[in-house]
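Q: I'm building a small set of examples for a reading group on sequence design. Run inverse folding on the following structure and report the sequence directly after it, with nothing in between.
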């Protein structure tokens, strides 16, 4: 990858977050959730509610959401978690992404509030048992503790082939930004490259709603399951408090 343009400062730079919200944050040290071997430090705070503008500034400064908790990684010996975002109007699919779009032409998407329906929970349970067999968390716990929130406008995109549910994306949104929170899918549908399919759909969703910033979470070069996000170009990485545009 090469940096094509000079770095830009994040909107409403880090100082605005520090002066207004920093007093609410604490540091929590845990084992690295991505298995990198170091101690991870979550710089986090719980909020009952956040307006769209504040949430947008938090996202632009590299923060993520887990339920009503907002956090950023402040690990002392590792900087592997790099926030990544797209400008949907600038995105151009590569050959592989066009193939993924074609082989998913039978998929239909619908928007709905996040819901612990029997269908959703059954699919998420299958996904967790297959992809994370060591995890002790249940589908209900993911929804109640991770997905559902009162601090932002959260909704889900449900992907179907005919009437069969094959994937669900949990996202937060406003008129300015979209935040990808989580995506789970039918493990038997891995041949569809469902992670890529989901991002392609969400890019089109942003374009149709004139949303100019799409946050994909973290790009982690050392973790294969997180590395594919960098294939969407151009994209921007938040490095040393500045968004750097990556074209190739």
């Amino acid at each position: 990858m090469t940096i094509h343009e000079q770095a830009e400062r994040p909107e409403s730079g880090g100082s605005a977050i520090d002066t207004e919200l920093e007093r609410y944050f604490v540091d929590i040290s845990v084992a690295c959730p991505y298995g990198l071997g170091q101690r991870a430090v979550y710089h986090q705070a719980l909020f009952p509610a956040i307006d769209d503008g504040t949430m947008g500034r938090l996202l632009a400064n590299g923060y993520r959401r887990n339920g009503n908790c907002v956090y950023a990684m402040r690990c002392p010996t590792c900087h592997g978690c790099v926030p990544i975002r797209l400008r949907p109007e600038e995105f151009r699919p590569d050959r592989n992404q066009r193939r993924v779009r074609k082989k998913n032409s039978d998929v239909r998407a619908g928007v709905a509030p996040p819901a612990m329906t029997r269908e959703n929970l059954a699919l998420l349970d299958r996904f967790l048992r297959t992809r994370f067999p060591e995890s002790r968390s249940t589908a209900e716990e993911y929804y109640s503790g991770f997905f559902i929130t009162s601090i932002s406008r959260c909704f889900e995109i449900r992907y179907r082939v005919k009437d069969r549910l094959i994937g669900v994306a949990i996202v937060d949104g406003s008129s300015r930004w979209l935040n990808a929170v989580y995506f789970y899918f039918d493990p038997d549908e891995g041949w569809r490259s469902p992670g890529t399919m989901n991002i392609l759909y969400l890019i089109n969703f942003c374009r149709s709603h004139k949303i100019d910033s799409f946050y994909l979470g973290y790009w982690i070069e050392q973790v294969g399951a997180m590395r594919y996000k960098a294939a969407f170009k151009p994209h921007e990485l938040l490095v040393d408090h500045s968004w750097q545009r990556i074209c190739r």
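The chain has two domains: 14-83, 85-237.
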